[in-house]
Write a structure and sequence with these properties.
Number of strands: 55
CATH architecture of the largest domain: 2-Layer Sandwich
Strand content: 25-35%
Distance between the termini: 83 Å
Structural class: alpha+beta
Strand order of the largest sheet: 6-7-8-9-18-13-12-11-16
Number of helices: 21
Radius of gyration: 31 Å
Shape: globular
């Protein structure tokens, strides 16, 4: 059966080649080098659509631009690894590196400065070639031509040295520094076979990748090494750093072919994958098959127009769109999710960057690759039903690294289920998405990440949590998706529940600025300076205030109403797209590609140019979409304005070129813009074809004059998914000036609105949390705290002993007087409403310096060149207490060094105790100090230690974020000078991804009594 399938592939490839003889095919226009330079983060190597193997050249990881393992600016290769992410903003993988060399065997990679010291090699782009499913390069240091191709689970290498003789092949499972290698092993099986594994911890979690390698020539010599030292006679070797070399003898013009099969399950799985996809096949046969597979995908849309450049950009975008998600199951159905070995009757996939791809890539699949859509949906849904881990936030090789926000997998699942794609069980999908939206259990990654408890209680994520606006708007949209599926399935009560939850963004609309701002649980707005980029960090993730204020795709009518109406929405959008005012500081690395304040470089605003259609001004959509395409997509290695994000940036371009875009996946419609090509034919899996034709040079004449659909006038600026799936022809008359009458009537504009069922409450009714208008947590002598609630007629109850208050606690009446450090907790109640969240703040009594000489005390940081700082100006003594948020502006960071602070009181004083706060958040490399000591002196020369504490934490403790404020008893010592030393943690431990580097130490207030 397998031989018959191979023969069929070869026949199909021949037919495709014949069809395009004398003219270029879609395959010929696709260029994997596009996006490998600049910020694109794509890789140029060999893979097949959605394959497990991405066999690509690897550079050293130097910085963020090397996330894919390769960057076009580089000129040195370490070898060829078998797993890579396409266009991601995170780095990792790079599993199982093979490298051919000649001459002396070298098991260390060497350095960039001196490549000849190791096995790496220089190369030139002039001797490099890439096409879908194929890559080749000449290694200049060895004069070896390397060619790569692949099946789904097997990478095929072909090494052709210029001279006959001995060829070495280095096998290195350890090379990627962004993967923390836990264990490796390599085994010699026979004179043509090797196998091994790499266990690591990185973006794919703690995982193991197994490989089986078959060589086309007998191995004449091999060696297994641990820590770069060969173990004589060893045929099996395990350890944290194992490598191997093999040697073969080649004649003149003879090539070595190496087939490397992967499995994330077992050695047996890797061998089975090889037997099914690699045994008996030559490099040429596999390359032909790979080309055929890519041609089948790229031919799903056939475009025609004058510009070769536009076709290259378009078909490369198609190519990038079909790389991910990636297969993770073996041919026997076994796969791994979160360390569990499972078995499935359907192919299982991972590398789900759904926060990016739900916006355009997944809707594209529902149109042109419904068979794969069903497989992707079933894979995701099985995380709930089979793996019992829930829907992932960002899943890499079966591990949810929770690197983004929201329960974003909801959108592609619901969109596909609503479109009735064959092979999808809508009820199974519904159970998975509903569970994701109700995840308030503390073991769930959604609990802390997305602020679910507050979101469900308040209807929005409050400003006390990071990225509050982003989380609110996205979760509102996901809830609307769930409501649509609940409605389809007849689950009326759930439909109402999630419809109500989808409107929380309305709480965050600030009528003074007409943007969405974050709001505290007290009802107070978080203050923001819109002229400083850093002030936007706590409210929005990757996108900005302009993108997320517009991200209500399910309720554009509601946003329009808040802004003032249809004309006002267009004016509001104009203000964003034409705002060129300067903003101080640096943007987030993902936010780039600006038109005014619209940043195309990251996904949250991708729908914004299309919102003009809702406002009745579609000619502006046509203008801005074309400007984005012209300015931010090029047919060069630096052709993407930012990360392709596993195909989302590419899918956006594809839709723009076709002339329609899914602003709100799940609403079954696409918003129309001007097509790029004179014709585009979409081949549908039901055997039908939907053709878009644009007359009168659409490249230059970008404005729609009129449209017909199947010969009839079409005046709407949107089209339904089902209309496209029925096939037909849409014809655009184009012109150089806007036709402001086309699609300008209300009935011709797209509608996106949420109506709340009669009698229901659009927003939860909860009492607002009490607050203290005085933000200072510190006081001297005594302090009177006055609490307030923005809920009229609310009663406040409080405690001072750290216990949780309720109606049995002391009732607040006009003020609370404190004389010592106290933990105040308060709660508010109002009739007919839920009780508020608990106000929780510690007020610190300390520092009575009013009798000191003017200007004292003075703090000096010894590692700041003896800089003298009055305490009111010192971030270590400014009466600001840090929170568990590392970016709250109240922490002082020390990078890989101790903090030594000397406090001069100007005279001898008596001190009772001292406290110093520190933060641990190892996810961002912030580690606690190893020790804190306090010393006293009267001459600022001879210090005597009077207090000391050492700190030791387990790995489990360090993997959690925590804040501590140890108190040091100073026993009423009388002294003029006090030295406080916080010793840095030391080298980051081996279990951490940044092992070997120095961490950060975050300290806040030195409090003295």
């Amino acid at each position: 059966m397998r031989l018959k399938n191979i023969a069929l592939f070869l026949i199909l490839a021949s037919l495709l080649s014949a069809c395009y003889s004398g003219s270029k095919s879609p395959y010929d226009y696709a260029d994997p080098m596009i996006g490998t330079d600049g910020l694109g983060h794509t890789f140029p190597g060999a893979t097949v659509p959605f394959g497990m193997v991405q066999l690509s050249p690897s550079n050293d990881f130097k910085a963020w631009n090397w996330c894919s393992g390769y960057h076009y600016s580089d000129s040195i290769l370490k070898g060829f690894a078998h797993t890579h992410l396409s266009g991601a903003g995170l780095a990792g993988l790079g599993d199982i590196l093979f490298m051919p060399t000649t001459g002396e065997v070298k098991l260390e990679a060497g350095t960039e400065e001196n490549p000849e010291m190791g096995y790496r090699s220089r190369f030139s782009h002039n001797q490099e070639e890439a096409s879908p499913g194929y890559y080749s390069v000449v290694l200049k240091d060895y004069d070896v031509n390397v060619e790569l191709t692949a099946t789904e689970r097997v990478g095929f290498h072909k090494y052709t040295p210029a001279q006959a003789g001995t060829l070495n092949v280095i096998i290195d499972p350890t090379h990627h520094i962004m993967e923390r290698v836990l264990d490796t092993g390599i085994e010699y099986i026979s004179d043509t076979e090797m196998r091994g594994y790499k266990k690591s911890d990185g973006e794919g979690g703690e995982r193991t990748v197994f490989f089986y390698a078959r060589f086309s020539k007998p191995i004449i010599k091999f060696g297994l090494a641990k820590d770069n030292t060969v173990s004589p006679g060893a045929e099996t070797l395990k350890g944290k750093n194992t490598k191997a070399f093999v040697q073969v003898q080649l004649k003149s013009n003879e090539a070595l072919q190496v087939q490397v099969a992967l499995s994330f399950v077992s050695h047996r799985g890797a061998k089975s994958n090889f037997d099914a996809e690699g045994a008996g096949l030559s490099f040429t046969e596999v390359h032909t098959m790979a080309r055929s597979k890519w041609s089948e995908k790229l031919n799903k849309i056939k475009v025609d127009g004058k510009s070769t450049s536009d076709k290259r950009i378009f078909y490369t975008a198609m190519y990038h769109s079909f790389i991910s998600p990636n297969l993770i199951s073996d041919v026997n159905g076994k796969y791994v999710v979160e360390g569990k070995v499972l078995t499935s009757e359907i192919p299982q996939y991972s590398n789900f960057s759904t926060w990016d791809t739900f916006r355009a890539l997944n809707p594209l699949f529902t149109m042109i690759d419904q068979e794969k859509t069903a497989e992707f949906v079933n894979s995701l849904a099985s995380r709930h039903s089979d793996a019992k881990v829930g829907l992932p936030v960002w899943e890499c090789l079966g591990h949810d690294n929770v690197c983004m926000i929201g329960y974003n997998a909801v959108s592609p699942l619901v969109d596909a289920a609503l479109k009735d794609i064959k092979g999808i069980d809508a009820n199974q999908v519904y159970e998975a998405v509903r569970a994701a939206a109700m995840s308030t259990e503390k073991h769930s990654p959604n609990y802390d990440k997305n602020g679910m408890e507050e979101y469900i209680q308040l209807g929005f994520v409050p400003a006390e949590l990071n990225c509050a606006v982003s989380k609110t708007t996205e979760q509102n949209y996901y809830d609307w998706c769930i409501a649509m599926l609940a409605k389809k399935l007849g689950r009326t009560a759930d439909a109402q529940l999630f419809i109500e939850r989808s409107l929380g963004y309305r709480n965050l609309f600030n009528p003074q600025t007409q943007f969405l701002h974050s709001k505290y649980t007290t009802g107070e707005w978080r203050e923001m300076d819109l002229t400083v980029w850093s002030d936007l960090i706590g409210n929005y993730v990757s996108g900005n205030i302009w993108a997320y204020s517009a991200f209500v795709p399910h309720d554009v009518e509601g946003l329009m109403s808040l802004i003032g109406g249809r004309e006002e929405l267009a004016t509001w959008l104009d203000g964003i797209f034409t705002d060129t005012s300067h903003i101080a500081g640096d943007t987030h690395v993902d936010i780039s590609g600006f038109i005014g304040k619209y940043g195309h470089g990251d996904e949250p605003g991708h729908h914004m140019p299309y919102l003009y259609n809702y406002a009745g001004q579609p000619w502006k959509t046509q203008s801005y979409v074309r400007k984005v395409m012209d300015d931010f997509y090029q047919d060069t290695p630096d052709g993407l304005v930012n990360n392709d994000d596993l195909g989302q940036m590419s899918a956006w371009y594809i839709f723009g070129a076709l002339g329609f875009y899914p602003v709100c996946p799940g609403d079954m419609q696409y918003i129309i813009t001007a097509p790029l090509f004179s014709s585009a034919a979409i081949q549908l899996e039901n055997g039908k074809q939907f053709t878009i034709r644009a007359k009168n040079n659409p490249k230059e004449n970008i404005y729609i004059q009129s449209v017909t659909l199947n010969g009839e006038p079409y005046t709407k600026s949107f089209i339904a998914h089902q209309q496209i799936m029925q096939g037909g022809e849409m014809v655009f008359e184009m012109g150089g000036e806007p036709n402001k009458k086309w699609a300008s009537e209300p009935e011709d504009m797209p509608v996106s609105s949420v109506s709340v069922p009669k009698g229901s409450s659009a927003l939860p009714q909860i009492t607002l949390k009490p607050f203290d208008k005085d933000n200072s947590e510190m006081f001297e002598g005594s302090r009177k705290v006055r609490l307030h609630s923005n809920t009229p007629d609310a009663d406040i109850y409080y405690t001072l002993d750290g216990s949780t208050p309720d109606k049995k606690s002391k009732k607040y009446k006009g003020g609370i007087t404190m004389h010592k450090t106290s933990n105040l907790k308060a709660i508010a109640y109002a009739d007919g409403m839920k009780p508020s969240f608990v106000y929780d703040r510690t007020y610190y009594a300390g520092r009575r310096f009013e009798e000191l000489a003017q200007g004292y005390p003075i703090l000096t940081l010894e590692n700041k060149a003896g800089q003298h700082i009055p305490t009111k100006d010192s971030p270590l003594m400014n009466q600001k207490i840090g929170s568990e948020k590392f970016n709250d502006g109240r922490w002082v960071g020390f990078n890989g060094r101790d903090m030594v602070a000397v406090i001069d009181f100007g005279q001898e004083i008596r001190l009772k105790n001292l406290s110093l706060g520190f933060l641990s958040n190892t996810g961002v490399w912030i580690f606690p100090p190893s020790a804190i000591s306090v010393s006293a002196s009267n001459d600022n020369k001879n210090f005597k230690e009077i207090a000391h504490k050492s700190f030791s934490y387990s790995q489990a403790e360090l993997e959690e974020t925590f804040l501590e404020r140890p108190i040091f008893n100073l026993n009423h010592i009388k002294t003029r000078y006090l030295k406080v030393t916080a010793s840095e943690f030391g080298p980051i431990p081996s279990w951490h991804a940044a092992t070997g580097h120095k961490g950060l130490m975050y300290l806040d207030e030195i409090i003295l009594n």
